Amino acid sequence: MSNPLHRTDVAIVGAGPVGLFAVFQFGMLDMRCHVVDSLDVVGGQCSALYPEKPIYDIPGYPEIVAADLVARLEEQAHPFAPVYHLGQQVVSLTATDERRWLLETARGTRIDAKVVVITAGVGAFGPNRPPLEGIEKYEGRGVHYLVKRREDFRGKRVVIAGGGDSAVDWALSLADLAQGVAVVHRRPKFRAAPESIARLHALAGDGAIELVIPFQLAGLEGDDGKLRAVRVRDLEGHERRLAADVLLPFFGLTQNLGPIAGWGLNLERNHVVVDPATCATGSPGVFACGDIATYPGKLKLILCGFSETAMAAHAAYPLVHPGEALHFEYSTTKGVPGR
Ligand SMILES: Cc1cc2nc3c(=O)[nH]c(=O)nc-3n(C[C@H](O)[C@H](O)[C@H](O)COP(=O)(O)OP(=O)(O)OC[C@H]3O[C@@H](n4cnc5c(N)ncnc54)[C@H](O)[C@@H]3O)c2cc1C
User: Is 305 in the pocket of ligand 1 (CB under 6 A)?
Assistant: First the structure.
């Protein structure tokens, strides 16, 4: 049996900051949205690459930490009841006979939409998975490639693998919350901010963090997807077993324009060419906003992506509500549902 078909006004490919704000802008014009992302969290680059960093050029916020901006955008989208399909990459986009679009994801989710908004940044994020047998059984339960909420690790035995910023920063951050933190790295040297490395060694000296160096991941132990231990091996083949509830492998994320390149869109150096007045692509009903969209003078800034979603929503309105006049209204006049 094939997967159920979701029928909606708008399908948004990418739940980065721009995709989230598109839910608000399209929602304000009475268009319902489904949002798909290959990551299992919303926020795109803000969540995957720099959740803890402050951003200084969001209008109205002299300073806002990226993760907080994502939380605010989710809150702003919430009244419009978006349906999220996370942890799945959109693999195909095809025109239907009814002048609509059919999207399919790698997990078989199918969305039939009148309008498609591509807010895919520089492509779908995916983790660099360590080659451990059966790791997929633990993903989302005992193995996480991104930290959504620090609190989730309270009282847990955490093994962190990797030697870069994410590994070091999360080891420092979880040290006082987790039951134990072990950092597995194949080299004695870490690649992170010098002050963070110094703090890591200081906490290791105090016994608050265990440095398992130079070791590499060798295997996982557990039952029914519940992790019990991580096996590690050094270069001489000596093995150790680290009791663990959670493994956080931080070996970086890959980004891949992937299937979007095959959707018949006009591309310029891996970006989708759009009309700067409407963000329309050459395919009727398909729009692109944010980092993936290009036009003369394009700036890859969050604030530019936000304004592009407003233009796309106005341009898309007659496709979703044919024959209905659109009267321009400010949010102050129109209000939002529930407020
Ligand atoms: C370290 C750093 C600091 C930055 N600082 C600033 C700053 O101070 N100010 C500023 O304005 N900008 C800053 N930026 C840039 C800013 O993060 C980007 O402009 C912004 O994230 C673009 O948003 P987006 O929604 O267009 O794309 P993204 O944030 O890239 O999100 C795109 C999403 O689409 C998903 N996706 C892609 N293809 C598919 C597919 N086929 N199926 C499903 N999902 C898919 C991806 O997984 C991703 O989650 C910074 C970037 C970095 C890396």
Answer: yes
